Amino acid sequence: MVKTITLFLFFICYVGHAQNWMSHNDALATGSYNIHTYVGGVFYAMGAEGLIHSTDGGATWSEPKPITGAPAGRAEIIQGAHDRVYVKYALTDAGNPGYLYYYTTDNGATWVNDSEGLFSYFGMDVPGRANFAFSVLSDNYIVLHNYFTDKSYYKQVGEEGWKELFAYDFNSLQDFTFIGNTWFAAIPTWAGRLRKSTDFGETWSTVGYSGLPDGEIQILASNHEGKLFIYFNGVNEVYMSEDEGETWVATNAGPAIAEAGGNLIANMTASGDDLYLALGPIETEDITTNYIESHTTVPSYTVGDPSGLYEAWLAPAIVEFYVVNDKVYASYFELFSAEGGGNHLGMENLKIDSKISVYPNPTTDYLTIQSRYSDTWKIYDLRGKLVSQGTLEAAIPVQINIEGLSAGTYILMTASTTQKIIKL
Fold first, then answer.
1. pLDDT (tens digit, 9 = 90+) per residue, 283-311?
2. In whole angstroms, how far apart are CA 137 and each of 101, 221, 224?
3. CB crowding 87-123: b at 16 or more within 10 Å, else e
4. Domains, the chain, ranges and CATH?
């Protein structure tokens, strides 16, 4: 006997992981530490007392290490970069404006002022330099860039001085990322707006951008494993490329952005199939910054749950995310963590059970499933949407009519198997 099931298409949202954010503030050393970074398996936090670090995921923290010899000022940004932690240090003396850039390679025991040669608004004879953003690239390279100064600099860890970076016929650069040893730079103009380099910044070429809308790129991100992401605030949409920027498709982030409050995306974090997009804050009575997330091979967004994150009537901040193994961390005034990763339908998670037969595969119309044991089965598309489900009786084949499905790849799940099926 063979059971036959005709597949009537229905779409049930495959619900992502609900966050339960836990603060690590109680574990911090005495003081206020509200800027964070992560590099080399270590979390760092910076406050008025100095730099502290944690090697156990925020459970315990070191004593603070101040930036010795620094003039009056405050740390505004810290950035993990290969074997070092950089600090963008804002000078607060009115007679000595600008920024200095320090780094440490020994958790704050010693510091190096790495500002020499960087552009200054006020002339090179004053210590303070321009306000640069950090980007960390492959092969131990670091980039400092500023949209407004028309100046960008880069160096490889171990080099003494900064070199000026020219990715276009002018040097005002919006953002950087990389895949392998191919670097990508976003240019704040429509012409030539995405550039790439395969020789560590020495030469650059224009990347094709078929499928992208008109306008300036606001955020450029990558999972460093083959996927590029671009956010355009003009259309409030995220686009994805899997061919190093030659072609792009919209990921349909707009509905989730609207559901989360409709504000513009402020940053993106991509790791594997995990994608976190933090919305810029809206000053209302509920000050919590919202975010959306996706955990599927083809992005399918849900609104994140910010419950447990810091809430107060303060100048709003923007959430920064770090995906570390099976957890996601959020820097939002304090450092928080939650079980991360959501529900993955990536091909790397496939597991085959010899006790279950699935055939023919590929198929154009019918798929047969047979198990030695009673079980349940579900079929998902690569966006994580459930398209069919049913039960298996021991040793009785179940024939599923999938003629109504679009051609493509789907994921079959039972209690003991997760495998790819192909509809031709």
1. 554 445 688 999 888 899 988 887 777 65
2. 18, 12, 10
3. bbbebeeeeeebbbbbbbeeebeebeebbeebbbeee
4. 3-12+347-423 (2.60.40.3080), 22-339 (2.130.10.10)
